[in-house]
Structures are given as C-alpha cells and as structure tokens.
C-alpha cells in the first residue's frame, strides 16, 4: 500500500533565505541595529553570500523593502490604470483614486502569512527613515506618488499639487496605522472595538477624501491673537 505523505516544502534558495532572515531581523531590532552576522547566522549562509547577492547592507535593506513594496505599488498602478481608462478625459472621481492608493495597503496586511512581521517592518521603515534614505525612498515610492498626485490633480484641480502631495502622504500614514495594525482599532480608551478592516478602509477613504477636498491652507502663517499664551 502506498502511503499518501505530503511532500516537504522545498528549502528557499540562498537569496530568498537571506531576504527572509533579514526581514525578520530588521522587523525585530530595526535597520540600524541589525547586524549582518546575525542575518547570516539566521539564514544559514556565509558572509560572502550577502555581498554576492546584495553588495552591502544598504543593498540588502533596499531589497527587503522592495520585495514588500513592489507588489503593493504594482497593484496600485493596475487599479489607477483601470480608473484612468474608464475616465480618459475630465475629472477623475476622487474616492476611487484614493481606493486605488489605499486598498493595496489593506490587501498587503490581509494576505501575507507573516502579517505581524510585516507590520513591524513598516513601522521600522516609518520611524527610522530620514534624509539619508532619500534616494532609496525616491526609487521605491517616487514614481507611484507622482502618478497619484497627478491623478488627484485631475480629481481636485482647485487644490495645488504640493498640497495634494502632502495630503496624500497624510492619508498613507493613516492607512499604515489603521489597516496594517488592526489592534489600533481596538483602542483602550476610544470606542473603536468591533470595526473590521474593510469598514475601516471605507471610512478611511471618506475621511481622506474630505481632507483632500478641503480648502488649501493659507500661504501666510496666522497671526497669533493678542493675549495668547506662548
């Protein structure tokens, strides 16, 4: 009698093993504190493999980020392309533009088997990225942000593009906080329990749309009222 035994999962190739180990270490201790030696040990490879596949720690960091960001950005552009084909001229509807930008973040949090690690990785990226990350962030996010800022300009032409870009960034921050971190919806003080992520996404789109449609901020700072405290 032939036994019907499940085949063991194939071991990841060297590059994938390094990426898996690096992502886990970066998520746990951050990009700055992560050591290549720990990643090598966790991946079960030698140090030369890091240099062969990625060149440096900076190259490894970008590869880890790209592996997670690229599918999200590809999905965003697919949704935006479809929307623009449906509306070749004139204004674009604002809420569908925002959904094309925000839904892939929601899908990334829902589909991955290592969602907790993904949340920590995004948190590390947001908290640790500074001016020295400019080139990396421009490569990974710049083209998509430019496309969506242009789409928002078609949807809300009365708002200047620099303001739209800033508000799009605000919307992304809210999406990462709420959609990649559902425990934030079970706030210990605010009455947010019982909200599923799909409802949160729909509410976030309405919230972001209202902010993007708002009148632009004044170009001059408001004067402080007399008697106001410093």
Automatic annotation (TrEMBL):
Kindly indicate whether the keyword Ubl conjugation belongs to this entry. Answer: no
Q: Which PROSITE patterns match?
A: HTH_TETR_1, HTH_TETR_2
PANTHER family (UniProt xref): HTH-TYPE TRANSCRIPTIONAL REGULATOR RUTR (PTHR30055), TRANSCRIPTIONAL REGULATORY PROTEIN (PTHR30055:SF235)
Q: What are the protein's UniProt keywords?
A: DNA-binding
The protein here is known as TetR/AcrR family transcriptional regulator
The cross-references to InterPro entries, in alphabetical order and at most eight, read: DNA-bd_HTH_TetR-type_CS, Homeodomain-like_sf, HTH-type_TetR-like_transc_reg, HTH_TetR, PsrA_TetR_C, Tet_transcr_reg_TetR-rel_C_sf
Q: Name one Pfam family in it.
A: TetR_C_30
Q: Which residues form the DNA-binding region?
A: 35-54
Recorded GO MF terms: DNA-binding transcription factor activity; transcription cis-regulatory region binding
Where the record annotates domain HTH tetR-type, the positions are 12-72
